[in-house]
């Protein structure tokens, strides 16, 4: 697996100060980072619309696992094509369930949220309408510790 790549190495030609923030569900604060991690969602601020050229290795595994904290979690869709929110699985210990069953069991909230930079508002979707889109970050709520999100390849 490739090692971590700094954001300046990925985005340095587009953003002069490539500092990104990621919400840490274990400490409940934003961490400042200059290392990009697949599956994490980030936010940054730029003064004007800015094109971003991403450089790195695509995720090609048949599934991608994202450990979650027992709180709100900021994640990034790791694939380059859309994946239905309802097709995501959830693992707790040795028990793996569909997203619908994990929601029924109280492990997860059924909603995903993303910030629309054009409307400057959060948008949400549920299991029936939710789609994880490439290059977007999302907020999801886990209701217990030790949850792992399993995103299938498109």
Note down, in words, how this protein is organized.
With 154 residues, this protein is mainly beta. Helices cover 7% and strands 37% of the residues. It has helices at residues 7-11, 99-104; strands at residues 5-6, 20-24, 29-33, 35-36, 63-67, 72-76, 83-84, 89-92, 95-98, 112-116, 121-125, 131-132, 137-141, 147-152. The strands form six sheets. The chain has a four-stranded antiparallel β-sheet with strand order 5-14-8-9. Strands 1-4 form a two-stranded antiparallel ribbon. A two-stranded antiparallel sheet has the order 2-3. The longest helix is centred in the middle third of the chain and has 6 residues, at 99-104. The protein is globular and about 45 Å long.
Termini separation (Å)?
20 Å
Rg, Å, rounded: 16 Å
State the secondary-structure class: mainly beta
Order of neighbouring strands in the sheet with most strands: 5-14-8-9
* Helical residue percent band: under 10%
Instruction: Assign an overall shape.
Output: globular
Biggest beta sheet attributes: 4 strands, antiparallel
Tell me the fraction of residues in β-strands, as a range.
35-45%
Low-confidence stretches: 1-9
Our count of helices gives 2
In quaternary terms, these chains amount to single chain
> What is the chain-wise order of helices and strands?
EHEEEEEEEEHEEEEE
**Overall residue-averaged pLDDT value:** 83
- How many individual β-strands? 14
